[in-house]
């Protein structure tokens, strides 16, 4: 065993979240090391956000071009799309990200890290060597989440894809069955259908069930139009594999023949082999934290242990993990240096947005962009709201943007406080509308002030004016 090394902060997991925790800590004058068993940059860089959007881009661009009068456009060329995906993921080489760590003054130890005591992480390298890392101030666990594969009869024998396999595949399957109805399921159904696979989606509930109902319906209608067989309200009961392919038996008695099964039914925390038991926590569990991302134990927060990103289950999104990382890195510095900790709501060291204003884009065609509360979420919280809907196809910018544009928008408004609680947009290129909605929700901008945020004409952003019209000028100016 190599000798122990001491740092102010030890970060386990060098994905985008871990990188940002370490970066903030070093920027604040502390020393930091990150531990990584796979590639620096994590899932987002190699198996999730970046490659999935690379796979989706050509198909969505081709359809957008077809909607522009006078253009003749062919579908995406598979070889070129996969080559573009490989370029985006740097051919699965993390050299450039390692160079960034070095330039930022962050040390890297490759291997599997486990807690072996208070403020102590033991790293086992690929060749079996062990190195002990000790933290003067904090250990941050940033190991993320992995695909949850349900224990369905025969599923394991079919060698199912998870999201990692779906974004890194080297060839297009003839037939692909997607189990699930969430973001990964919808995006990968779109991508592989665009690339020529015969795709079937099987979902227990409606598509995108955590979002506004209309969003899921419009995505389902679009996927069906593009040739995807979408079956909702049905379970998979059994999977049988044989020389003629895979037979997937559904709860309604039907059978779907396929060449590949993609399981996109949820996520699990990567905490099963982190040594949590050494500090009184349950291995394999999600980790509860306070708003400064300190892990909560039986007797309250552990003053030195932080869980940042997916594994605290607050918001399983790359951008939210980076947001948490900045807050966690800053609060670690504040506590280490004796500075004031601003942990009040919207304080510099509190991850308030995780429960109030989480933005998300589903990169299907149409896109779905949402932030804040949906109407259903507001109802669950007992908040009386007013809903304002508008047909995006009626906005001048949409008419110019695309022939036959189809879309929809909704604001969720608190009529008592006269502020925006949530917004959802569905349509081509609506992702670019999302930041304005996020600012309105986070800033609790009064509705009467939003009237003065004049949208340029003719842009799709003019929908803001139409939505405010739907509230009624007297109400909005009250």
TrEMBL record:
InterPro entries, per database record: Class-I_Pyr_Nuc-Dis_Oxidored, FAD/NAD-bd_sf, FAD/NAD-binding_dom, FAD/NAD-linked_Rdtase_dimer_sf, Pyr_nuc-diS_OxRdtase, Pyr_nucl-diS_OxRdtase_dimer
Disulfide pairs?
44-49
| Residues reported in the UniProt entry to bind NAD(+) | 180-187, 266
Which SUPFAM superfamilies does this one have? FAD/NAD(P)-binding domain (SSF51905), FAD/NAD-linked reductases, dimerisation (C-terminal) domain (SSF55424)
Task: Note the Pfam families from the entry.
Answer: Pyr_redox_2 (PF07992), Pyr_redox_dim (PF02852)
UniProt keyword annotation of Nucleotide-binding present: yes
Q: Which GO terms describe its molecular function?
A: dihydrolipoyl dehydrogenase (NADH) activity; flavin adenine dinucleotide binding
User: Domain Pyridine nucleotide-disulphide oxidoreductase dimerisation spans what residues?
Assistant: 358-464
Q: Where does FAD bind?
A: 53, 113, 143-145, 310
Question: Where does the record place the FAD/NAD(P)-binding domain?
Answer: 7-318
The record's cofactor note says: Binds 1 FAD per subunit.
The Gene Ontology biological process terms listed for this entry are: 2-oxoglutarate metabolic process
Q: Which cofactor does it need?
A: FAD
Q: Which UniProt keywords apply?
A: FAD, Flavoprotein, NAD, Nucleotide-binding
Give the domain of life: Bacteria
What family classification does the UniProt entry report for this protein? Belongs to the class-I pyridine nucleotide-disulfide oxidoreductase family.
Q: What is this protein called?
A: NAD(P)/FAD-dependent oxidoreductase
């Amino acid at each position: 065993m190599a000798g122990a090394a001491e740092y102010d902060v030890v970060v386990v997991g060098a994905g985008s979240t871990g990188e940002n925790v370490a970066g903030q800590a070093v920027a604040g004058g502390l020393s930091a090391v990150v531990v990584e068993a796979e590639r620096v940059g994590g899932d987002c860089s190699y198996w999730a956000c970046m490659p999935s959007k690379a796979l989706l881009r050509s198909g969505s661009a081709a359809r957008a071009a077809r909607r522009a009068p006078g253009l003749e456009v062919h579908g995406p060329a598979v070889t070129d799309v996969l080559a573009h995906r490989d370029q985006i993921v740097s051919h699965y080489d993390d050299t450039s990200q390692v160079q960034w760590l070095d330039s930022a003054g962050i040390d890297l130890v490759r291997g599997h890290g486990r807690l072996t005591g208070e403020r102590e992480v033991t790293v086992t390298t690929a060749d079996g060597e062990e190195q002990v890392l000790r933290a003067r101030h904090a250990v941050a666990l940033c190991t993320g989440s992995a695909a949850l594969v349900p224990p369905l009869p025969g599923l394991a024998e079919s060698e199912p894809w998870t999201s990692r396999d779906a974004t890194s595949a080297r060839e297009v399957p003839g037939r692909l069955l997607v189990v699930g109805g969430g973001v990964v399921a919808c995006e990968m159904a779109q991508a592989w259908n665009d690339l020529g696979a015969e795709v079937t989606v099987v979902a227990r509930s409606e598509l995108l069930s955590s979002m506004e109902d209309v969003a899921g319906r419009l995505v389902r209608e679009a996927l069906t139009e593009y040739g995807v067989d979408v079956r909702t309200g049905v379970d998979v009961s059994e999977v049988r594999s044989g020389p003629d392919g895979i037979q997937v038996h559904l709860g309604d008695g039907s059978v779907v023949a396929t060449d590949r099964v993609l399981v996109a039914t949820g996520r699990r925390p990567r905490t099963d082999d982190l040594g949590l038991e050494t500090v009184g926590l349950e291995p394999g569990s999600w980790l509860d934290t306070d708003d400064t991302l300190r892990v909560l134990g039986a007797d309250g927060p552990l003053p030195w242990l932080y869980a940042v990103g997916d594994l605290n289950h607050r918001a399983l999104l790359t951008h939210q993990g980076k947001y948490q990382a900045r807050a966690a890195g800053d609060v670690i510095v504040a506590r280490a240096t004796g500075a004031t900790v601003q942990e009040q709501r919207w304080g510099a060291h509190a991850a308030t947005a995780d429960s109030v204003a989480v933005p998300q884009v589903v990169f299907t065609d149409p896109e779905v962009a949402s932030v804040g509360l949906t109407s259903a979420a507001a109802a669950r919280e007992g908040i009386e709201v007013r809903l304002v809907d508008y047909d995006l196809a009626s906005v001048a910018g949409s008419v110019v943007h695309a022939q036959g544009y189809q879309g929809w928008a909704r604001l969720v408004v608190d009529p008592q406080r006269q502020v925006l609680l949530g917004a959802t947009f569905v349509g081509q290129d609506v992702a670019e509308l999302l930041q304005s909605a996020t600012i309105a929700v986070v800033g609790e901008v009064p509705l009467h002030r939003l009237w003065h945020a004049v949208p340029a004409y003719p842009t799709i952003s003019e929908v803001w004016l139409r939505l405010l019209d739907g509230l009624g000028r007297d109400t909005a100016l009250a």
